[in-house]
Amino acid sequence: MKAPHRRASAHDEPGMTSMIDVVFLLLVFFVWTSSFDKPERNLASQIAMSQSELEEINSQGQATSDTLPDEDAPRSEDVVVRIIEDESGLRYQVGAVDFAAIGDVLPRLQKIAALPTSTVLIVDPDDGVSFDDCIEVFDHAVRFGFPRVLFAVD
């Protein structure tokens, strides 16, 4: 005797809703995580390290060509722009000279950038300084033509 033929119903098909949800979540995850790479490409910079920090990294075997200075490169002068936040607000210090506003610092940076040496500009913000103020100095330094702009870390 033959088994009775069963009619296919809509409930017999696999549910696609959960599969669509999983694919959508994976898509959102990869799009979201890939967006974190953009600032690194837009803001290409190195971190200024002291010689003792470089030696410590080198002794641990973690040094890369990005962290160690090139021995054959011509020596350059470092210009440190400190961004200091106190009770009166932000003030800037280029070398030993204090400035009250970013507008006062810009002509000085432009003159330094015009010098024939390969000057390295190091942005050294205090702990309370916002990242926007650091990026403003960085943007002006790049626009003025500094070959290297670094951020200092303590």
TrEMBL record:
In this chain, the stretch annotated as Disordered covers: 54-75
Q: Which Gene Ontology molecular function entries are recorded, alphabetically?
A: transmembrane transporter activity
Q: Where is the signal peptide?
A: none
Which compartments is it annotated to reside in? Cell membrane
Q: Which InterPro entries match?
A: ExbD (IPR003400)
Skewed-composition ranges (Polar residues):
54-67
This protein's GO CC annotations: plasma membrane
The GO biological-process annotations, alphabetized, read as: protein transport
Keyword entries, A-Z: Cell membrane, Membrane, Protein transport, Transmembrane, Transmembrane helix, Transport
Q: How does it sit in the membrane?
A: Single-pass membrane protein; Single-pass type II membrane protein
Q: Which family does it belong to?
A: Belongs to the ExbD/TolR family.
This chain belongs to which protein, by name?
Biopolymer transport protein ExbD/TolR
Q: What organism is the protein native to? A: Allorhodopirellula solitaria
Q: What is the lineage of its organism?
A: Bacteria, Pseudomonadati, Planctomycetota, Planctomycetia, Pirellulales
